[in-house]
Amino acid sequence: MNKAVFLDRDGTVIQHVHYLTEPGKVEIVPGGVEALKKLQEAAYLLVVVSNQSLVGRGYGTVDDVEAVNARMLELLEAGGVRIDCVKYCPHLPGEDCPNRKPMPGMPIEAARELGIDLAQSVMIGDNLSDVEAGRNAGCQMNILIQPAGASDYRPSLGATVVASGLPEAVDIVLHV
Ligand SMILES: [Mg+2]
Ligand SMILES: [Zn+2]
């Protein structure tokens, strides 16, 4: 069985841009390439799982989402990082899609496709819905990225770990 790190896209792997539809605006977070490379070298599969309700809201198309994803992959590949799988849910909260985080559909589906043991895997994201999706999927650790100055979610989080950004989250995963 493989182990994986599930990664939220916006605000976790790439800089958050509200309703991002332009590939030209894609920027990897600071230190993100080096951090993901460390996970890859430690034999973690890398799976991006992203809510993209902008499609359901009519602010962009599935093609826009895929163009942004492709640009993200291109920037990561230029740095030597290969993402094993990218999944996104285009639906609105009210549509009750089992893939929309905090529902665990995307990690569970990736686990089935790639032979991932969820109990050895980790979720990293900058929203409570990310860590809840990881918890709902049965991930062993769920890390909330909470940049300095953001409002403090910690009291309600129970066993969830908090990190300042993707590099620190990765260091927590690798215990360095
Ligand atoms: Mg996010
Ligand atoms: Zn969906």
Short characterization:
By secondary structure, the protein is an alpha/beta fold.
Detailed description of the structure:
With 176 residues, the chain is of the alpha/beta class. It contains 5 helices and 6 strands. It has one domain (7-126, 138-148): 3-Layer(aba) Sandwich (Rossmann fold). A 6-stranded parallel beta sheet has the order 3-2-1-4-5-6, with helices on both faces. The two termini are 24 Å apart. The model has no long low-confidence stretch (mean pLDDT 93). The structure holds magnesium ion (MG) and zinc ion. Zinc ion binds next to loops. Magnesium ion is lined by residues 8, 10-12, 125-127.
CATH topology: Rossmann fold
**Low-confidence regions:** none
Number of strands: 6
The hetero molecules present are: magnesium ion, zinc ion
User: How many H/I helical runs?
Assistant: 5
β-strand amount: 15-25%
Helix percent reads 25-40%
Could you give the topology of this structure?
Elements: E1 3-7, H1 32-41, E2 44-51, H2 62-78, E3 85-89, H3 105-114, E4 122-125, H4 128-137, E5 141-145, E6 161-163, H5 166-174
Parallel strand pairs: 1-2, 1-4, 2-3, 4-5, 5-6
This protein binds magnesium ion and zinc ion.
